[in-house]
Amino acid sequence: MNSWVAWARGPFLYLAFSVLAVGALRQWALAIGELARAHRMAGDQKVPWRWMFKKSLGWIVPVNALRGTRIPFTIASAVFHAGMLVVPVFLAGHVALIEKGIGIGWPTLPAGAADALTLAALAGLGVLLLYRLVERAARFLSGPQDYLLLVLCITAFLTGYLVAHPDRSPLPFTLMYLAHLLSAELILVLIPFSKLAHALLFASTRIVWELGWHFVPGGGDKVRAALGKAGEPV
To answer: Is residue 170 part of a domain?
Structure first.
């Protein structure tokens, strides 16, 4: 078992980060190309940066979405994303592992804050999984990838919490640690090739989406002609 842990902490960890780095560079290169294409084709090439920044904050902190039947889903999604972004990057154990490998470290979360965010993320993931199972529309739109990613994230957070608190773990520490390493590293490998890629592409996606609503030059006239309304005021 110890040899498996050494492999997961060594070669497979470096492989996972390498795949993440290469995949992220590919995604960003494609996104930059798509941005250039959208900007070139847009009739109005002005990007309302301030409005987009406010709109993006609305997606990150979805206060306006806290209404209707989707309130639990919205809160769960926000909590999960907060935990997913903060805990893996600022957990003391993760930073120590990276510092040992490449000699670079940064400030870390207090243990209590890390535990709270981990448990909150687990609760959020549980709600998201339940929502996909019981909500008819969400169940219809969900595919195997959605469930696989949720199960992987739950596994990574749950095993990570139990590794930090071995007295609460039903399994031996080494086995739990191996499960945590493998699930987390598999997530790293899948990020550039799955729906988790939106963590890398959020900003560029918002800009492309905005420019996509700016008709190409002459697009409005072509739409009016197609509707038989050529020459009529809009």
So the answer is: yes
Q: What is the CATH classification number for the domain harbouring 136? A: 1.20.950
CA atoms within 13 A on the CB side of 97: 15
143 is a domain residue:
yes
- The helix (H) or strand (E) run that includes residue 46 is none
Q: Is 135 helix (H, G, I), strand (E, B) or coil?
A: coil
Is residue 230, in this structure, part of any structural domain at all?
no
DSSP state of 194: S
Helix or strand (DSSP H, E) at 229:
none
Query: Residue 42's domain spans which residues?
Result: 2-214
Measure CA 10 to chain center.
25
Q: Is residue 94 part of a domain?
A: yes
Q: Which residues contact 145 (CB under 8 A, 6 or more apart)?
A: 194, 195
Q: What is the mean pLDDT of each run of 10 residues along the chain (234 residues)?
A: 89 93 89 74 65 62 56 78 87 87 88 94 92 88 91 96 94 95 95 82 60 56 70 59
Hey, CA dihedral for 66, 140, 124, 77, is it positive or negative? negative
CB count within 10 Å of CB 75 equals: 16
* Tally of domains within the chain: 1
Tokens of 194: 């799955």
DSSP states of 124-171: HHHHHHHHHHH-HHHHHH--HHHHHHHHHHHHHHHHHHHHH-GGG-SS
Q: Can you give the pTM of this predicted structure? A: 0.78
